[in-house]
Amino acid sequence: MDETKRSTMELPISLDLSKKELEDLIEKAKDWALMHGMCLRPRKDFDINTLQFAPFVLFPSPFPREEFQNACDLQVTLNTLIHRVAHDYDFLKNTLEETIKVDKFTKKLFEIYETVHEEGVAQKISLGILRSDLMLDTSCPKTNMKQLKPHCCWKQVEINTIASGFGWLGPVSTQLHKFILQELGYTAELSNLPENNALQILCSGMIEAWNLYGNSQTVILFVVENVTYNICDQRFHEFEIRKQNPNVKVIRRNLTQLAVTAKLGPNKELIVDDYIVSVVYYRCGYEPSQYDSNKEWVVRLLIERSLAIKCPSIQYHLAGTKKVQQTLAKPGIVARFLKDETTAAKVKEIFTGLYPLDFDKYGDEAVEMGISEPECFVLKPQREGGCNNLYGDTIKNFLRSVKSEKTRVAWILMDRINPPIHKNYIVRPGFKIEETINIKDLVSELGIFGVIIGDDKNIIVNKQGGHMLRTKSALDNEGGVATGLGACDSPFLID
Ligand code: ADP
Ligand code: MG
């Protein structure tokens, strides 16, 4: 879509400050971010003892109040949907059957699932910390009929079931923006920044799981990367857990360390060094490169076999794949899981067109669509963590090259969402002030958190829990903050 023609949204606050005012405000905001732990470890000139502020936008970004509320309200239903999908063995098996023939990574995950399924799972309870990511859209046919709003609806980008980050960076962005608005004298406007208790709610979910396990001597294990850049986001979860319950200790280990130290006790307890682990929280393990060798896969299976409550358990991980997302968009599938037609219809409304690339009539049609109008789609493999998708002409070239290859079924094609544009300043470490004070055309992606605990029969906890907003240049395809493209943001609700 032509960026210049896309509709825009405005913040009801003037962004026009004098150069001096702007420079002062930016300096102050950077220091606020640094001093409140709104930080990342630097990728360039990495040093374990150094933090840089996370990129952020100076002002909160406008977001329609009604759509924000609708997204929060729907989360509990999305949690239920994913929970039921995760507990439907036949559905997961049929859905991923063709994918795992060509996608080694998904195959490895699926093998773990098959193994524990055949053996009978030791721990039936799962903890889901989910994040449903969405964008407002301007391109669906409804917009043309009703141009009163800059957007027509909102659409789900994906739902994350593993390592759903920003439980800290989300809420702290709201705090930063409150500070900035106050600095500028906009106290009356503060009520438009919705409360964000993501950190408290996600951590209370982990503590709830720890309680359910029922042994006060146990610890929560964070499975982390070899090098953690998004360290504040992870550590603040740890600190919050201690704050909520001083008896709960958190330990951090990467998969390679666990491969050496983790073992199963006589009753399948997960034992790491001298600790019994009751809850395993993965902030890693969603990318092939995070499994350095077969050892890491062996320990993932060992953890899955254990009595510890996993966040996510393997079936939840699989339920978050793009292939499952695409299959859920097929007629009648959501209704099968949610039973109630009205609720199913509400969920279906947020799905974009999603197309398989199977070797059949529909798959062939999708390949042709992607080749003839690549700018209308995003092409996605079964991966998480950003920077894996293809856009624009790359889609065309790629589809031409894999048209007759079996590997094409590992990908799905998705309608491209075109969010409305708004203006703001992006503040990044290493950027010169002259660059920062250039106002930019930006687009945002909202993430709504959900916590769910349950087993194949019962759901014990199911709640919506806070949000996060990421903003990127309207010209960029992707916007992960940890990958360096996006900036932390918070919504300013507009009517
Ligand atoms: P990942 O699991 O790697 O995070 P996503 O599906 O979330 O993969 O895609 C990564 C990013 O690509 C999103 O954060 C968003 O910026 C962009 N993106 C993904 N799907 C779409 C889409 N359908 N339309 C527009 N942008 C998209
Ligand atoms: Mg994503």
Task: Characterise this structure.
The protein has 495 residues and is α+β, with helices and mostly antiparallel strands. It has two domains: 3-352 and 417-494, no CATH class; 353-416, Glutathione synthase lid domain (Dna Ligase, domain 1), CATH 3.30.1490.50. The chain is 38% helix and 23% strand. The strands form six sheets. Strands 5, 6, 17, 19, 20 and 21 form a six-stranded antiparallel β-sheet that branches. Strands 7, 8, 9, 10, 11 and 12 form a six-stranded mixed β-sheet that branches. A four-stranded antiparallel β-sheet has the order 13-16-14-15, with helices on both faces. Helix 8 crosses helix 9, helix 10 crosses helix 11 and helix 16 packs across helix 17 (392-402). The mean pLDDT is 95. Magnesium ion is lined by residues 133, 158.
Task: Briefly summarize what is shown.
This protein is of the alpha+beta class and 495 residues long.
Rg, Å, rounded: 22 Å
Distance between the amino and carboxyl termini: 26 Å
Mean pLDDT: 95
Ligands, deduplicated: adenosine-5'-diphosphate, magnesium ion
Low-pLDDT windows of residues: none
User: What is the count of β-strands?
Assistant: 22
Helix percent band: 25-40%
The number of helices is 18
The class by helix and strand makeup works out as alpha+beta
Percent of sequence in beta strands: 15-25%
Q: Characterize the largest beta sheet: strand count, sense, and whether it forms a barrel.
A: 6 strands, antiparallel
Overall shape: it is globular
Total separate domains: 2
What topology emerges from the helices and strands here?
Blueprint: H1 19-35, E1 39-40, E2 52-53, E3 56-57, E4 61-64, H2 65-86, H3 89-96, H4 99-102, H5 104-119, E5 126-137, H6 142-145, E6 153-160, H7 169-183, H8 198-213, E7 219-224, H9 231-244, E8 249-254, H10 255-261, E9 262-264, E10 270-272, E11 275-282, H11 294-305, E12 309-311, H12 314-319, H13 322-328, H14 333-338, H15 341-349, E13 354-356, H16 361-372, E14 377-380, E15 390-391, H17 392-402, E16 412-415, E17 422-424, E18 426-427, H18 433-436, E19 440-454, E20 459-473, E21 487-489, E22 491-494
Helix pairs in contact: 1-7, 5-11, 8-9, 10-11, 16-17
The chain binds adenosine-5'-diphosphate and magnesium ion (MG).
Residues 133, 157-158, 352, 378, 380, 383-386, 388-389, 414, 416-417, 445, 478-479 line the site of adenosine-5'-diphosphate.
